[in-house]
Amino acid sequence: GRCSKMLGMLETRLKSIHNYRVIVMTHMIPVPEFDVPKSYKGWGFFNGYLGSRKIQGILEKERNVDYCICGHVHFRKKLDKNNI
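^ that's the sequence the OP posted. Answer follows.
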């Protein structure tokens, strides 16, 4: 579907610029640590629609990504995960 197509485009783009250091900006959340906290009642269902863990896999695999800036929820967090 649409998600697979967008993930494929991200992966292709990162491969095409493999000689450059990259900052990825995405609206979708790539890691579970940025989900809405479970203490917010009713959000457990919506966390399934906030992003894709496959984004994290692509960013880690390509190894030219230094930073990923994402949105979709209104919680400000910083995370160092696998050198990204």
